[in-house]
Design the sequence.
């Protein structure tokens, strides 16, 4: 019958397809949820864009497997003498993928481009006063005040070729309409763009003229965005893709139960926390408290912190994959305060006692806002937390929504308590102090994600000193002080570090970096 | 006839403007595009500047009128997310959606019509009962679940068919087609079945009911009495008469197939308009959402028009009415 014939020929075709894939073992096919919006490293600063483009473009410095800063297009850097800032010595003999030579002009050009109003990464250059060319391979970044962390903060600042950008009308990042750099790439990095079909498929091939030592053995890398987790898992298990980031927690068992696949588990640098409406004079969503905000009382915030049972959340929601967090960065990040590494104990009796002390013996109700598509299990986490709060008398009225709706609500102060995850972009404690703990000040660009308006004068005083202090021990003692203050005042309730779960075929060796970036140059296929 | 078409075209313009208007009034509730466009560290000042530049602070009516004016001038704007021209983005995705819709429709007709005839002619057969049961189950399961089930059975367990994407495509002019490669067809099978199941059931049940009705009519009995062969009777006389309502319904449903392929496209990562629309919602990409909805409205209107014209062609009674 015809049907039989068709089935047979499909089966043969399938076998052929499998053979074909085996034959080209050095093609890597990988998938992730989101397609990079743009190929222009200054037009976007979302993780998918920066992660992808770090394979093609390079910065002056880059991050190693353990997130440490190492030389890239700059071979060395040292603080300026007589001025604030840093001198970068550039690598000689580097060429862009179109053959143009890399030199200091390109760094200056890229700086101007990336710090322009049209750029989405210009906040990295807020501390910079000017950039001076010393010679063809030396560049000075002069900062307004001493800035020991500056080299760490520009690891994702990628360098474009001046001539290429100018020739193609891409002098500035595309803001309203696309330009040449939106779809085309000319970097110095280990890979170059072979083809791009936005939202469908992007193909990279090794850059033969790359200056570095090649550690990977791939000849082609094909990226496909797969938005639906179940589809992504099926694509991996059917062998159509070799690697996927991330997979949902509930799929771990599926992958592990099969031979020839494996799950890669790590910890992201993102800490999940609850925040309070510190400066709100009254609760918005309470049915029993009128005209005041109990969360302004530190005892109530402490009660909330003691109500959370992280061990249960870990066991029930995260299958034992998370560690409780004591502060807004995980251990291992620079500036982590070892002196303040205990988190509030789970102690419902103490929580109840604190509420009595604060004058709420019967508890009260309030509104808890959570996103439902931003962090792993975010909605489930908030449900669990709400019932834990309720057990001590804090009756959380939970409302959840997609993140596109969530940030505007937080910006409009539409919450009593909210969920937030924070990954320190500079991988230093100074980052959350600047964004989450400083008194909001749009002029000084401080506290822009401090939705609840937490404010402590001493913390505000310490931030500039922390930013400028060169001596590590002095700096750490100031950070310790900030962490101690914010813990004592329960500025936030840090919950845990978000796990990082990737899955791949077991013949793929790769490095899972804590910033969730996927670097092709560390991939080998056996 | 020309008057009829003209009237329809004028109507369709109104429909599209109305859709755009409603769409625009809903966009305000989708979320904030700026927070989706900018990075974590982008300052509030920069965000506000961008908001002003994009005209998002303008009153809703101003934004709507600007959208309509630019559409009329053929300027479909640029995506907030990718900064590419929306017209190109949508045009690139149309072939995938249309081909998927057409194949789904074909499956529903090629399987649905014979199955409908069979179940009408042998209403008490075991096969009939099992077909009816199966299709009932088929329409009761959500599309999403059907898709995932098919993927895991045929893609993962058996490994016969690809689990996502379009497989091999060939570009003919601006049209990227799956029809010319084996891999393209292999990739089409599962999504087309997923999308076509509902249509298939509908077609089958419709053909069955109509056929059963026709078989009882006088002219069939008369034809039987004349001794016309049963085969000729069933397929030439009876079936042809059942097809008029079937074509109407199926045709009208085709607009729905195109519009509601969103779920199927998402499950199969099928790079059509529906998937693009879903992504656009996630990123509050208002220009893309607006154009997509207008294009879908246009498809609906177009399909309706074609169905009406087909009606003229099939049913001679309508032609005489219009002429008189």
Sequence:
């Amino acid at each position: 019958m015809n049907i039989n014939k068709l089935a047979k020929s499909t089966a043969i075709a399938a076998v052929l397809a499998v053979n074909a894939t085996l034959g080209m073992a050095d093609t890597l096919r990988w998938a992730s949820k989101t397609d990079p919006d743009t190929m222009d490293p200054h037009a976007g600063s979302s993780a998918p864009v920066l992660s992808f483009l770090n394979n093609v473009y390079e910065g002056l410095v880059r991050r190693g497997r353990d997130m440490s800063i190492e030389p890239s297009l700059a071979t060395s850097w040292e603080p300026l003498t007589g001025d604030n800032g840093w001198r970068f010595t550039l690598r000689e003999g580097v060429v862009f993928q179109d053959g143009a030579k890399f030199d200091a002009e390109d760094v200056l050009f890229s700086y101007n481009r990336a710090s322009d109003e049209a750029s989405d990464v210009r906040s990295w250059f807020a501390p910079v006063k000017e950039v001076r060319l010393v010679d063809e391979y030396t560049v000075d970044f002069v900062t307004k005040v001493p800035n020991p962390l500056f080299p760490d903060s520009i690891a994702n600042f990628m360098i474009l070729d001046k001539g290429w950008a100018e020739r193609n009308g891409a002098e500035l990042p595309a803001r309203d309409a696309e330009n040449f750099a939106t779809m085309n790439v000319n970097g110095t990095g280990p890979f170059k763009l072979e083809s791009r079909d936005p939202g469908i498929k992007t193909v990279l091939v090794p850059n033969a003229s790359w200056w570095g030592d090649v550690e990977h053995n791939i000849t082609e890398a094909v990226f496909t965005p797969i938005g639906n987790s179940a589809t992504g898992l099926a694509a991996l298990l059917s062998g159509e893709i070799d690697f996927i980031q991330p997979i949902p927690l509930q799929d771990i068992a599926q992958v592990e139960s099969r031979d020839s696949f494996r799950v890669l588990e790590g910890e992201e640098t993102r800490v999940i926390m609850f925040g309070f409406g510190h400066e709100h004079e009254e609760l918005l969503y309470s049915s029993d408290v009128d005209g005041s905000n109990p969360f302004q009382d530190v005892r109530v915030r402490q009660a909330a912190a003691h109500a959370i049972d992280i061990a249960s959340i870990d066991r029930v929601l995260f299958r034992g994959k998370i560690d409780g967090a004591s502060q807004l960065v995980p251990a291992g990040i620079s500036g982590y305060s070892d002196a303040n590494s205990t988190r509030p104990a789970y102690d419902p009796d103490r929580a109840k006692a604190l509420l009595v002390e604060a004058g709420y013996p019967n508890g009260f109700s309030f509104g808890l806002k959570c996103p439902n598509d931003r962090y792993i299990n975010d909605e489930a986490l908030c449900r669990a937390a709400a019932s834990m709060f309720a057990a001590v008398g804090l009756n959380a009225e939970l409302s959840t929504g997609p993140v596109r709706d969530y940030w505007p609500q937080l910006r409009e102060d539409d919450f009593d308590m909210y969920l937030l995850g924070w990954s320190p972009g500079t991988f230093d404690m100074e980052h959350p102090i600047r964004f989450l703990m400083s008194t909001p000040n749009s002029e000084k660009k401080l506290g822009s994600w401090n939705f609840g308006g937490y404010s402590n004068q001493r913390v505000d005083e310490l931030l500039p000193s922390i930013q400028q202090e060169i001596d590590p021990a002095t700096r750490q003692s100031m950070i310790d002080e900030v962490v101690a203050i914010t813990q004592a005042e329960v500025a936030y309730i840090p919950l845990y570090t978000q796990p990082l779960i990737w899955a791949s075929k077991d013949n793929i060796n790769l490095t899972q970096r804590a910033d969730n970036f996927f670097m092709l140059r560390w991939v080998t296929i056996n | 006839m020309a008057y009829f078409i003209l009237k329809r075209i004028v109507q369709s313009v109104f429909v599209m403007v109305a859709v755009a208007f409603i769409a625009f009034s809903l966009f305000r509730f989708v979320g904030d595009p700026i927070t989706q466009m900018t990075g974590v560290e982008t300052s509030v000042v920069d965000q506000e500047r961008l908001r002003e530049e994009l005209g998002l602070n303008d009153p809703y009516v101003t934004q709507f009128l600007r959208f309509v004016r630019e559409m009329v001038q053929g300027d479909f704007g640029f995506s907030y997310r990718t900064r590419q021209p929306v017209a190109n983005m949508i045009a690139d995705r149309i072939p995938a959606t249309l081909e998927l819709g057409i194949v789904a429709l074909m499956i529903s007709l090629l399987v649905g019509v014979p199955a409908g005839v069979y179940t009408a002619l042998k209403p008490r057969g075991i096969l009939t009962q099992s077909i009816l049961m199966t299709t009932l189950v088929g329409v009761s399961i959500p599309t999403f679940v059907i898709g995932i089930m098919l993927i895991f059975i045929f893609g993962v367990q058996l490994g016969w068919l690809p689990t996502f994407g379009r497989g091999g495509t060939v570009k003919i002019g601006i049209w990227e087609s799956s029809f010319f490669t084996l891999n393209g067809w292999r990739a089409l099978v599962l999504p087309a079945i997923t999308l076509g199941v509902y249509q298939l059931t509908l077609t089958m049940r419709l053909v069955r009911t109509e056929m059963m009705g026709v078989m009882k009519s006088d002219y069939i009995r008369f034809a039987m009495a004349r001794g016309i062969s049963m085969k000729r009777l069933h397929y030439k006389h009876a079936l042809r008469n059942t097809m008029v309502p079937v074509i109407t319904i199926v045709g009208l449903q085709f607009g729905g197939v195109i519009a509601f392929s969103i779920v199927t496209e998402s499950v199969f990562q099928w790079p059509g308009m529906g998937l693009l629309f879903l992504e656009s919602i996630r990123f509050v990409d208002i220009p893309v959402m607006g154009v997509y909805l207008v294009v879908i409205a246009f498809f609906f209107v177009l399909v309706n028009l074609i169905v009406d014209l087909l009606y003229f062609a099939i049913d001679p009674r309508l032609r005489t009415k219009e002429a008189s």
User: Anything to note?
Assistant: The first helix of chain B runs from residue 2 to 27. Chain B has 14 helices and two strands. The mean pLDDT of chain B is 85. Residues 27 and 87 of chain B are 19 Å apart (CA to CA).
